[in-house]
């Protein structure tokens, strides 16, 4: 049985994630609702925008930039988005100029639905009775490459112990 060199296989993807750590991104694992399956979310808030990415698998990630003021609306438009392998998506996000700088994306319009937490401010100190109990409950099921709902069985590295 041949052994797999995971360091070589995932080197570029892990290097991109390490670069995002150095650029101030924070991380959390989000449940997908399928057994022990999780998605890695990286996010950074600065200059009035939130840059975020979700890594479903090495070859399946999505990244976007949102204005913080837009996060209060139900489906905020992304200023920028990209789908693809983790290394390409994360490095493209890191290459974006700071918000407001020359060459930075300035107009929204890309619908990206991948679990951006909404900024809810309760009025009068009472929580909204219609709001879900926590941020994780508001996160929709991940999409395969951003193109549609996932089907049936888990694939490859998306499922612990899974394979093709």
Structure write-up:
The protein is of the alpha+beta class and about 160 residues long. The protein is built from 2 helices and 7 strands. It has a 5-stranded antiparallel beta sheet, covered by helices on one side. The protein has a two-stranded antiparallel sheet with strand order 5-7. Strand 1 and strand 2 form a beta hairpin. Helix 1 packs parallel to helix 2. The longest helix has 17 residues. It is globular, with a radius of gyration of 17 Å. The two termini are about 15 Å apart. The C terminus is likely disordered.
What class, by secondary structure content?
Answer: alpha+beta
Average pLDDT number: 74
- Looking at the structure, what is the overall shape? globular
> Major sheet, described briefly?
5 strands, antiparallel
Main sheet: strand order? 1-2-3-4-6
What percent of residues adopt helix (DSSP H or I)? 10-25%
- How would you spell out the order of helices and strands? HEEEEEEHE
**Can you tell me the residue ranges where pLDDT is under 50 for at least 5 consecutive residues?**
117-127, 131-164
Q: Please, how many helices?
A: 2
Cα-to-Cα separation, first versus last residue: 16 Å
Radius of gyration, rounded? 17 Å
Report strand %: 25-35%
Number of strands: 7
In short:
With about 160 residues, the protein is an alpha+beta fold. It is built from 2 helices and 7 strands, in the order H-E-E-E-E-E-E-H-E. It has helices spanning about 5-20, 85-95; strands spanning about 25-30, 40-45, 50-55, 60-65, 75-80, 80-85, 110.
